[in-house]
Amino acid sequence: MFDEARTRKMPVKRPIYLDFQATTPLDERVYAAMTPWFGAGFEAGFGNPHSTTHRFGWEAAAAIDEARKAVAQVIAADPRAVFFTSGATESNNLAIKGVMEAMLSVKPELIVPVTEHKCVLESALAMERRGAHVKWLPVGRDGLIDLDQLADLITDRTALVSVMAVNNEIGVIQPLAEIGALCHRKGVYFHCDAAQAFGKIPLDIKAMNIDLLSISGHKIYGPKGVGAIFMRRSRPRVRFVPQMSGGGQEEGVRSGTLSPALCVGLGEASRVAAQQMDEDRRHVRRLSQRFFEGLRQAHPGILINGDLEKRYEGNLNLSFPGIDGDRLLSGLRDLAVSSGAACASATSGPSYVLRAIGRSRAESLSSIRFGFGRTTSIDEVDFACETINHVIDELGGLKSGDRNQ
Ligand SMILES: Cc1ncc(COP(=O)(O)O)c(C=O)c1O
């Protein structure tokens, strides 16, 4: 299959973007939907969606309501339980701090896997400083949590379990339905950081018993600076203290004037993502398989990080044993890739996620995350593959054996 690469038709534009977990380019349909809302002057939609006394406000509010419905539909939620925020960082802060502040005096415990995104870890630590008791849940070598271990950690003093859907560094998909069923049985709220999952894999808040869910716009070809939080309003109603004081917009969940352009953008990105989720997933699966086969044929010692099956295929995190990650990255200037999460890539320590799944310090430092997306082409993947194989050879090849996981 990889031989097709030799018959590449078009020269590829460089650098090739393979960092779709960090962010995604705006989809043209999203841009088109947003433009009426960010022009200049009175011709553009500029109304304050919270103005209830005139047409300018009503029109903006109506557009936002449509967007809310589109977001809600992706997770099979009631639109009235979806609230716009500035992104998944804010939604995660809101979920963890909001719930824990409300529950602190009755149920001070919070359970968080060690491989969560920094904004979840830091929010948990912030609540620990305010008296919460954080229980850190380890993950296996496959990056997945163990349900029995989770069950053992839950007590009648546990308020919240927060587990991400798809890991941003290694792409593994946690067993959401099983976690939700367990939390539901034990009367514990389940928050899911779905920044890397929303619009990419099927999510159903009812079937998965999810009480709170965080969404980001810019991971699904939508605009940056907008996201959403789903918060269950009944059976059970999530007890929660708002974290932003203000005019009580978004039913008091999140004060502040909403941006119609950004909300409409997130709505359209959600609609498109839902419509072509299967197609998008087939595309990235095909690309990542082709990419990995091309690398492994030449260099069988390359390791995949995280479970081989339970994963979102658009994220392939690989370790190159014996190769210095910085030297590898500097040889890959034609590829826009990342050695880990965008928020942590300025710090050059080994990734805490890779360390948590048992990779050595050296293996962690020799790892790169390759992200494929809706716009990635086979030609780009083949070019990336050839480039990497070439750079590995230049650096003297891989050093250790053929261990796969
Ligand atoms: C898993 C996960 N959670 C949260 C975030 C933060 O999202 P945002 O950039 O919308 O604040 C990200 C983005 O890097 C992420 O990957």
TrEMBL record:
Name the EC number(s).
2.8.1.7
* The entry's keywords: 2Fe-2S, Iron, Iron-sulfur, Metal-binding, Pyridoxal phosphate, Transferase
Gene Ontology process terms (BP): iron-sulfur cluster assembly
Q: Where is the Aminotransferase class V domain?
A: 16-382
**This protein's record includes keyword Iron-sulfur:** yes
Cell membrane keyword on record = no
What cofactor does this chain's UniProt record say it requires? Answer: pyridoxal 5'-phosphate
Report the PROSITE patterns cross-referenced here. AA_TRANSFER_CLASS_5
Q: Quick one: a GO cellular component term?
A: cytosol
Q: Which GO terms describe its molecular function?
A: 2 iron, 2 sulfur cluster binding; cysteine desulfurase activity; metal ion binding
Enzymatic class: transferase
Q: Which reaction does it catalyse?
A: (sulfur carrier)-H + L-cysteine = (sulfur carrier)-SH + L-alanine
According to the record, the signal peptide region is: none
Alphabetical list of InterPro entries matching this protein:
Aminotrans_V_dom (IPR000192), Aminotrans_V_PyrdxlP_BS (IPR020578), Cysteine_dSase (IPR016454), PyrdxlP-dep_Trfase (IPR015424), PyrdxlP-dep_Trfase_major (IPR015421), PyrdxlP-dep_Trfase_small (IPR015422)
| Assigned protein family | Belongs to the class-V pyridoxal-phosphate-dependent aminotransferase family. NifS/IscS subfamily.
Q: What does this gene product do? A: Catalyzes the removal of elemental sulfur atoms from cysteine to produce alanine. Seems to participate in the biosynthesis of the nitrogenase metalloclusters by providing the inorganic sulfur required for the Fe-S core formation.
Question: Could you tell me what this protein is called?
Answer: Cysteine desulfurase
According to its UniProt entry, this protein's organism is Iodidimonas nitroreducens
